[in-house]
Design a protein that fits this description.
With 61 residues, this protein is mainly β. The protein has strands at 2-6, 13-18, 26-33, 39-47, 50-57.
Length: 61
């Protein structure tokens, strides 16, 4: 299950939670939508495997 939310007080904060995955790894992703409105950069931590940085592009159709 993956869920996400954004901070209403500052529409540029993103939180994603990855839970109950088939590999048994749970992850928390936090990030900020950059000023261009199309790029998200942040950090993640996973149990039991560690963490790091992540980046995503927002595509609008």
């Amino acid at each position: 299950m993956i869920s996400s939310s954004s901070d209403a007080s500052s529409n540029n904060n993103v939180t994603i939670e990855r839970r109950n995955s088939s590999d048994g790894v749970n992850c928390n992703y936090t990030g900020i939508v950059e000023e261009d409105g199309m790029t998200v950069n942040g950090n993640y931590s996973c149990t039991p495997s560690g963490g790091g940085t992540w980046m995503a592009y927002i595509h609008q159709y």
